[in-house]
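Quick review question:
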């Protein structure tokens, strides 16, 4: 995680952005999120915030993290769509490099790829769900898929079509290896079919629920950390044996992100 010391909303990178934030509240909310992760049994490690990098708190985006029999722990650095966010990437790469992760650099050219915002491991690690349309580009996903193919890891591309679900992590949340939360209207028809084929149980969120980041939760040791809880989400979590933990992330929602976006899981 990255403390929100320099967190701010300056430029509208997604449809949620346009309202000033309250930095003190943001700090309290971030501390609560950190505490709820620790209460769920997660050990939290930190990266130092950098002045001027107002979105650095969204630790899900700067690198993709993996682990592989042959090459061990690795990352794939992102190429962020907005230049202001491209500047975050070297700080994250440095953090991982110092901790022994192998760095797989891709030559993106004009393409973009936004880490775990758009790339989600299937929980059994059999494949990677990879979305494009608003932030990552189809070409970025293809370049990533080619690199993963060399490691024998299949990548399933998904096209996003709802600007309020501009990252995959706003409309797909793996709950366990059989079940996922999803907002079906975030995908093109073909992609929705591909997505459904990969899960035994697809639990649907409405667009309204997804736009309130209920699908942007964190699954941790039997808990589901979420900014809000609806009857529908409550029933889904009960059916999958997860206990909801509600954490207010309203200041970060003004930047288009919630719980899931504010961390990267290490292997
Ligand atoms: N303001 C950030 C942006 O638009 C929010 C990133 C949210 N991260 C996420 N993984 N969905 O880039």
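Suggested answer, residue by residue:
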């Amino acid at each position: 995680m990255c403390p929100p010391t320099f967190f701010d909303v300056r430029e509208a990178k997604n449809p949620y952005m346009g309202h000033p934030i309250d930095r003190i509240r943001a700090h309290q909310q971030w501390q609560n999120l950190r505490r709820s992760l620790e209460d769920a049994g997660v050990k939290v490690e930190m990266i130092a915030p950098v002045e001027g990098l107002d979105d650095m708190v969204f630790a899900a985006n700067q690198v993709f993290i993996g682990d592989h029999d042959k090459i061990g722990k690795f990352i794939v650095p992102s190429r962020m769509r907005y230049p202001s966010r491209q500047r975050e990437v070297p700080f994250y790469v440095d953090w991982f490099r110092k901790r022994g992760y192998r760095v797989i650099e891709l030559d993106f050219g004009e393409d973009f790829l936004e880490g775990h915002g758009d790339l989600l491991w299937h929980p059994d690690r059999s494949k990677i769900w990879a979305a494009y349309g608003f932030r990552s580009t189809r070409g970025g996903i293809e370049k990533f898929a080619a690199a993963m193919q060399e490691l024998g890891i299949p990548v399933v591309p998904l096209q996003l079509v709802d600007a309020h679900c501009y990252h995959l992590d706003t409309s797909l949340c793996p709950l366990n290896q059989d079940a996922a939360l999803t907002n079906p209207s975030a995908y093109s028809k073909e992609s929705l079919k591909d997505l459904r084929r990969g899960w035994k149980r697809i639990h649907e969120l409405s667009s309204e629920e997804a736009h309130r980041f209920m699908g942007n939760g964190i699954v941790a040791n039997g808990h589901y950390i979420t900014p809000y809880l609806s009857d529908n989400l409550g029933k889904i979590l009960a059916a999958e044996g997860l206990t909801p933990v509600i954490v207010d992330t309203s200041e970060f929602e003004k930047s288009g992100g919630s719980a899931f976006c504010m961390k990267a899981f290490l292997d």
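Why it works: DSSP finds nine helices and twelve strands in the chain. The first strand starts at residue 63 and ends at 68.
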